[in-house]
Every structure is written in C-alpha cells, then in structure tokens.
C-alpha cells in the first residue's frame, strides 16, 4: 500500500512540475511581449 502511494507521487510530481514550469514560462514570455 505504501509502495503504491510512493509510486503515484513519483508519477504525478514530474507532470505537475512540467505543467508549472511550461505554464510559468509561457506566461512570462506572453507578458514580455506586451
């Protein structure tokens, strides 16, 4: 049971970080254009 929680966390964390980084990057570039 604990292994499943750790696996889910390792699987979700990179996706969340990727969305956060790409979302923040696109937001910064969009603001820089204006």
Task: Note down, in words, how this protein is organized.
This protein has 1 helix and no strands. Helix content is 94%, strand content 0%. The chain has one domain (1-33). With 34 residues, it is mainly α. The protein is rod-shaped. One of its GO terms (molecular function) is magnesium ion binding. Keywords: Photosynthesis.
Number of strands: 0
What string gives the helices and strands in order? H
Count of helical regions: 1
Number of domains: 1
Task: Provide the low-confidence segments as ranges.
Answer: none
Instruction: Sum up the overall morphology in one term.
Output: rod-shaped
Please report which band the strand proportion falls in: under 5%, 5-15%, 15-25%, 25-35%, 35-45% or over 45%. under 5%
What is the CA-based Rg, rounded? 15 Å
Kindly report how far apart the N and C termini lie: 50 Å
Which structural category fits the helices and strands?
Answer: mainly alpha
Q: What is the mean pLDDT?
A: 77
- Helix content percent band: over 70%
Report the biggest beta sheet as strand number plus sense, adding barrel if it closes.
Answer: none
GO biological process, one term: photosynthesis
GO molecular function: magnesium ion binding
Keywords: Photosynthesis
InterPro entries: RuBisCO, RuBisCO_lsu_C_sf
